[in-house]
Write a structure and sequence with these properties.
The structure is a homodimer. Chain A folds into three domains: 13-104 and 445-486, Uridine Diphospho-n-acetylenolpyruvylglucosamine Reductase, domain 2, CATH 3.30.43.10; 111-226, Uridine Diphospho-n-acetylenolpyruvylglucosamine Reductase, domain 3 (2-Layer Sandwich); 228-345, 2-Layer Sandwich (Alpha-Beta Plaits), CATH 3.30.70.2190. The radius of gyration of chain A is 23 Å and the shape is globular. Chain A has helices at residues 13-26, 36-41, 62-75, 126-135, 152-157, 165-168, 203-207, 241-253, 266-279, 307-322, 334-350, 370-384, 410-429, 448-451, 454-467; strands at residues 32-33, 55-57, 79-82, 99-102, 109-112, 117-121, 138-139, 175-181, 187-190, 216-223, 225-226, 230-238, 260-264, 297-305, 327-330, 357-364, 390-393, 398-405. In chain A, 56% of the residues are buried. The two termini of chain A are 46 Å apart. By secondary structure, chain A is of the alpha+beta class. Chain A has a seven-stranded antiparallel β-sheet. The interface between A and B is large, with 89 and 88 residues. Chains A, B: Keywords: FAD, Flavoprotein, Oxidoreductase. Chains A, B: Its cofactor is FAD. Chains A, B: GO terms for molecular function: FAD binding; oxidoreductase activity. Chains A, B: It holds the Pfam family FAD_binding_4.
Chain lengths: 499, 499
C-alpha cells in the first residue's frame, strides 16, 4: 500500500505526463482538456483556495470513468470529481493536482411520476430536478441556497441540507440508490429504486457525505414526495436574540413543524439596514419601529400543507410568534411573501460592508444551546473585534456564523483565525457539530479532531484505505489538517453565480 | 491478519477456555453466564438455526463491553451481540460459538419532549419507545410486526421496516445518533442528537443494517415526529391479485400517501377462511360474497393525519379502492377498525395448516413488478406443489412471500429449497431486493451474490476487514454462504412470543 500516515505518495511530474498521454489515447477526442481556462475553472470552489489540476476530464460514458480511475490507480494520479464547484470548504479543489473528473455534463433528469422517483445524472442541477418533479405534481425538498447552480453529485458529496430540513430532511433522506465507481474503477450500484432495502452493507449512505473520497457517483435515484398545496409566510422582529430564540423554543415545543424557521441576528440585520437605508431601498417594512432604534433580531417562518392544515397552523403560529415580538407580519399573497423573504435572501450579500472576506461556518447546536451559542458569538466579536453576523435554520439548530474581515490586513486575518477557532471549540463544547451541511473539505480539516475521537477518525481512515488503497480519490481533504491561512485565496475569480 | 477468504481463524477450545477464565476475572459477578438454560436461549433466533455459545455475557456498563471485545480480539473468540432474538434470518445465532453479548437489559428510554428525541439503550423494546413517546405527544413510527418484543438494537441491526414505511420510513430514517464500540473495543459515537450533521464519514448509517458485524450498538438517539391526530381504516376485497394490485397502482399514482396499504393474496385468505370457517370464528365480514365463492385477494388501507386531512382523503380512497372491489368496508370507530385489522394480524398464523414450517421471504419489487411477482408465486406453487401464500406492504413493494411445507418430509424440503431459489432469482430479475427489512444473516447468505456484483461484495468485505481485522464480530454471516437445509431447525424451542 502506497499510503502512509503522511498521506498517499503520488506520481512525479514525468510519470504524470506519461499517464496523461496514455489517458488521451484511451479517451474520446475532446474528453481530456488541458487548456488553461478549463484548468483554472476546475482549480477552485467557492472557498477560493485554488490549485491547478493537470487536466479536466469530461467522460463521455461509464467506460471512460472506469478508464480514468484505472489509469489513475496504475500511475498514482490524484482524481477529484467535480460538479458546479459551489462547495464552500475547498472540497472540490484538486489540492494535490492531478485530474479533475468533471461530471457537470451528466445532467439527465427523468421523473417516474407513478412511483415518485427522479432518476438523475450526477451533474443535474438541484433546482432543475425539483422543477421537473413539480411538473408532474411531485416535490424534491432539499434546497441548499446554491440550489440554482449546485449539482446533485455535489449535494450528495456533502449531504446538502437547506432551509426546509427540519420538516423535510436533507439530501440523504431522499437518495434511494446510487450508481458509480469504486476508487479502483469497478462499477457499483448501492441500493435500488425501492423504498425498503437491507441487502449487504449500506455503502450508499457511506458514500453520501463522504465528499467524493470513497467513490465516484455518476447517477442517483431520488425519492419524491407529493408537493404541499399551499403555504403561509410570517416575518417577526424581536428586540434581541434571546427573545427570538425563546420563541423558536416555544414553536418547537408546541410540536408545530414549520417548513421554514429562519433566524437572523441583530448584526446581520444591522448590515442589511445600513446598506438599504443608505441606498434608499429599504422598502416599507418597519425594521426599526422608530428612527434610531437599534436593528432587531428576526424570525422568518413558513408553514405548508393542504389548505385546512395551513389555516389551522396559522392561528397557533400567530400566537406563538407574536408573544414576544416587536412586530409580526403575515403575507396575504405570494408577492407579500416574497417581500418578507427579501431580508433573508439578501442579508448575506449585505455583510460585505464589514470586510471583503466572509467565512461562513455552518455549525449545528442542540435546541437548548442556541441562545448560549448566539451569546458566545457576541463575546467573540468583543474579544477579536471582528463582526460575527449569524443567521440560519433555527428549527434544526443549523446556524451560519460568519466572520467578516479584510483579507489584506494581516492583523485582521489573525483575529479571524482566532474567531473561527473559538467558535468551533464552543460548538463542540455545547454538544454541537462543526458542520451541518457543508462538510469538512480543506477549511474544516483542522477541526475534525475536535469533533471526533482518535478511534473514530481511525475507523474512517481505515475505511478510506480499504476502498481507495492508493489514496487517489480527492486526496488532501478531511484527514490531513490544511492551514488555509497560509494560502492566499483566489479572490479575482468570478463564479457564474457571484453577485 | 488472521482472516482469510475462508473466514477468520478462531481460538481452539482450550484457548477459548483460558479466555473465558480471564473474562470472568475481569467482569462483575454474574455478568458471565455459562448455565445451560442461558446458553440455549442465546443459541438461536426465530429462524431456529441453533448453535450453543460458550457463554452469555450481560455487561454491567460500557467498560465491560470494551473488556469483552478486547479479550475476544486478544484470544480470537467470536462475539455475537443479541437483543430479544427475534431476527428471522439466523443473524443472532452464534454459529461459530463463542460469546453472546446480551444487551437486552440495556433498556433505558428517555424522551426529550421539547426537541423530539428518544434517547434509548440498545435493549429498549420498540413498542415501549413509542408508548413513552406517545405519553408526551410524540410518535416513533417504525413498527415491525415484532414491535412488542424486538429491541431497538435488533431493529438497527437489520434496519427494521414495518407496515407504515411507505409513508413514515424505516428505522434508518429515525436514527440520528449511535453510541457503541468498534469490533476492536474502542468506544465511538456516530452522529449527535442533531438534525443536520456531516462531519467525517457516516459510520452511523454504515452500522445501521450491518447486522451486528461492524460494531456493537449500546445506545441510540431516535428522532420523533408529532403523532397524527386520527386515522381512517378501510378493507376491500378483490376477485384476484391483479385487481387488487392494479388498485394499489391507482392509489399511488394519485399521490395519496396511505399510512398503511397491506395486500393479502388469495392463498393467504384461503388459509384464514378455512381455519375460521371450521372453528366457527369467522365473524361478520362477507369474505365470500356467497357460500362456495373462492377466497378473494384483499387490501387493508389506512390514512392518517389531522381531522381535515383524513376527511378529504377518505373520499378519494373510497373511490379508488372501490373501483374494482367486490366489496369495501370503512371502519366507523376504533372497534370496527380492529375488526378489519383482524385478518392481517392473524393470517400469518393461519398458514400453519399448510405445513409445519414457514419460510418468510421479505422481498421487495418495484411497483410495476408487483403483479408479475404475484403471478410468479403461483407458477412456483404449480411447479413445486408447495403453497406460496403472500401478503405484505404494497405501498413500498415489500411482500412477504411464504413457502409452507413439512420439515420432516425430505421431498417437501427439497421442493421448498427449489421454491425459495426460484423466487429469489425472479425478484432480482424484476429489479427487486432479496430482503427489505429482515437482512441477510444465515438464511439469505446463499443469495447475496444474486443481488450484488463481486466488486460490490468485495468492497463490503474490505470494510468488514478494515473495522474488524480479527473477524470476531458475528462471524459466519452474510458473506459465507450457509446451507440452512443441512442443519435441522430447533423446532422444540418456544419463544415468549410464540402463539
Amino acid at each position: 500500500m502506497s499510503t502512509s500516515s503522511e498521506g498517499p505518495v503520488f506520481a512525479d511530474p514525468r510519470r504524470r505526463a506519461t499517464a496523461l498521454r496514455e489517458l488521451r489515447k484511451a479517451m474520446t477526442a475532446g474528453a481530456v482538456d488541458t487548456a488553461d481556462e478549463a484548468r483554472r475553472v476546475a482549480s477552485l470552489d467557492t472557498c477560493r483556495l485554488a490549485h491547478l489540476p493537470e487536466a479536466v476530464i469530461r467522460p463521455a460514458n461509464d467506460e471512460e470513468v472506469a478508464t480514468v480511475l484505472r489509469l489513475a490507480n496504475r500511475y498514482r494520479v490524484p482524481v477529484t470529481a467535480r460538479g458546479a464547484g459551489s462547495a464552500t470548504t475547498g472540497a472540490a479543489t484538486p489540492i494535490r493536482g492531478g485530474w479533475v473528473l468533471d461530471l457537470s455534463g451528466w445532467d439527465e433528469i427523468r421523473i417516474d411520476a407513478v412511483s415518485g422517483y427522479a432518476h438523475v445524472g450526477a451533474g443535474a442541477i438541484n433546482a432543475k430536478i425539483n422543477e421537473a418533479a413539480e411538473k408532474k405534481g411531485w416535490f424534491y425538498p432539499p434546497d441548499p441556497s446554491s440550489k440554482g447552480y449546485s449539482t446533485i453529485g455535489g449535494n450528495i458529496a456533502c449531504n446538502a441540507g437547506g432551509l426546509r430540513a427540519a420538516k423535510y430532511g436533507v439530501t440523504r433522506d431522499y437518495v434511494v440508490a446510487l450508481e458509480g465507481f469504486l476508487p479502483t474503477g469497478e462499477p457499483v450500484k448501492w441500493g435500488l429504486p425501492l423504498k425498503k432495502y437491507v441487502s449487504g452493507f449500506n455503502l450508499r449512505d457511506l458514500w453520501i457525505g463522504s465528499e467524493g473520497m470513497l467513490g465516484v457517483v455518476t447517477r442517483a435515484t431520488l425519492k419524491l414526495i407529493p408537493a404541499p398545496e399551499t403555504r403561509a409566510t410570517f416575518l417577526a422582529a424581536y428586540k434581541d436574540e434571546a427573545a427570538a430564540l425563546r420563541t423558536v423554543r416555544e414553536v418547537l415545543k408546541a410540536r408545530l413543524v414549520p417548513s421554514i424557521l429562519e433566524f437572523i441576528d441583530r448584526q446581520t440585520l444591522d448590515c442589511f439596514l445600513r446598506k438599504h437605508e443608505k441606498a434608499g431601498t429599504l422598502g416599507s417594512l418597519p425594521f426599526r419601529v422608530k428612527a434610531g432604534d437599534p436593528a432587531p433580531a428576526m424570525l422568518l417562518l413558513e408553514v405548508d400543507g393542504d389548505a385546512g392544515q395551513v389555516r389551522r397552523q396559522k392561528t397557533a403560529v400567530r400566537e406563538l410568534l407574536g408573544a414576544k415580538a416587536l412586530w409580526l407580519r403575515q403575507a396575504r399573497d405570494e408577492e407579500e411573501a416574497e417581500a418578507l423573504w427579501r431580508i433573508r435572501r439578501t442579508c448575506s450579500q449585505a455583510m460585505f460592508q464589514m470586510g471583503d472576506t466572509k467565512l461562513n461556518e455552518d455549525i449545528v447546536v442542540p435546541l437548548e444551546s442556541q441562545l448560549p451559542l448566539l451569546k458566545y458569538t457576541l463575546e467573540v466579536r468583543k474579544k477579536t473585534g471582528l463582526a460575527t453576523p449569524t443567521f440560519g435554520h433555527a428549527a434544526d439548530g443549523n446556524f451560519h456564523v460568519h466572520v467578516m474581515f479584510d483579507w489584506g490586513d494581516a492583523d485582521q486575518r489573525e483575529r479571524a483565525r482566532e474567531s473561527i477557532e473559538l467558535i468551533m471549540r464552543k460548538v463542540v463544547e455545547l454538544g454541537g457539530a462543526i458542520t451541518g451541511e457543508h462538510g469538512i473539505g480543506l477549511a474544516k480539516s483542522p477541526f475534525l479532531s475536535l469533533q471526533h475521537t482518535e478511534a473514530e477518525i481511525g475507523a474512517m481512515k481505515r475505511i478510506k484505505d480499504a476502498l481507495d488503497p492508493n489514496g487517489i480519490l480527492n486526496p488532501g481533504k478531511m484527514f490531513e489538517p490544511f492551514d488555509m491561512w497560509l494560502q492566499p485565496r483566489d479572490r479575482a475569480w468570478r463564479f457564474p453565480w457571484d453577485h
